[in-house]
Amino acid sequence: MAFVPPRAVPARSVQSLEEYNTPRAPLRRQVSLDEERRDDCQGHWRGPYLEGEEEEKGVRLFRAMLLQHLRLEELRPPPCMIVPANPDQRGWWMYWRDWRALERAARRFRETKARARLAARAEHIPLLSLDEVEFEDIMQELCQACVHYEQRALVVLAFLCEVVARAVRVGGWCRAADWAARHVAQCATPWAIRHGGWSAVVERAGGSRREETLLAGAAIAALLAFLLYCRTRLRHALL
Fold it and tell me: Does residue 16 register a pLDDT over 80?
């Protein structure tokens, strides 16, 4: 059997990138803006878009919900997200009451199928190649799809938490947090004001405040018992 030598392959010249005119494959990962300003980012909760008390309240509640969401997802928040928001001028008790109502609603929402759909939707958002206009288009589409207006604020906040959490995983968290806080202040807050303000909105979303009522009753009972004890000890000391 005669041996047939392999056919010679003609040599090809290496083409420079400048002469390569055909479409190139996209980058697998683009450079995130966070890699450029990781050290000088001062936080996202005190921007110029906070024009009033309700805007500050909405951003403050979103920050608390986001940090809790990151903790439940076992994600370490970047330092710029831990920066505190503007304090509540009404006092810590009023903020704690609003946050407890929102926390109840968020805890129930995590067990629903809607939360899984929101998480799946957030996974398909190209954060590293998205601009703010496209982001607002996505948020507008989400708001229009929410038929139960009582839960619209909760759905918006939950979706923003999913988006920022994904940004913490893949990059772009500063940009995502800025856009989310601005959306809460400029888009979600006017809607909340038309429906009674953030306190009323989160109260309706959270449902009954039975836990707070029981806790307040227990605290008052403990205080009365302590006062009676002090009065009895004082009487025995004087006698």
Answer: no
